[in-house]
Design a protein that fits this description.
about 60 residues, alpha+beta, 3-stranded antiparallel β-sheet, about 30% helix, Reverse transcriptase domain-containing protein
């Protein structure tokens, strides 16, 4: 049985937050392991992701 390789859209209160699309890497196209997920984020979430990364990275550098 093959895993689903569909485009996934996450929504909260009818607002689109993220789109995840499977991108083929190599090998057999029928195996889910040969795909990698690519997420498309809105600019606000990209900014939030970067701020969170910077905060966690600074914390780990200090401790």
């Amino acid at each position: 049985m093959y895993a689903s390789l569909n485009i996934i859209k996450y929504q909260i209160n009818n607002k689109l937050l993220i789109i995840i699309t499977p991108i083929f890497k190599a090998g057999n196209t029928r195996k889910a392991q040969n795909y990698r997920p690519i997420s498309v984020l809105p600019p606000f979430l990209k900014l939030l992701e970067r701020l969170l990364y910077d905060t966690i990275y600074a914390f780990l550098q200090q401790n």
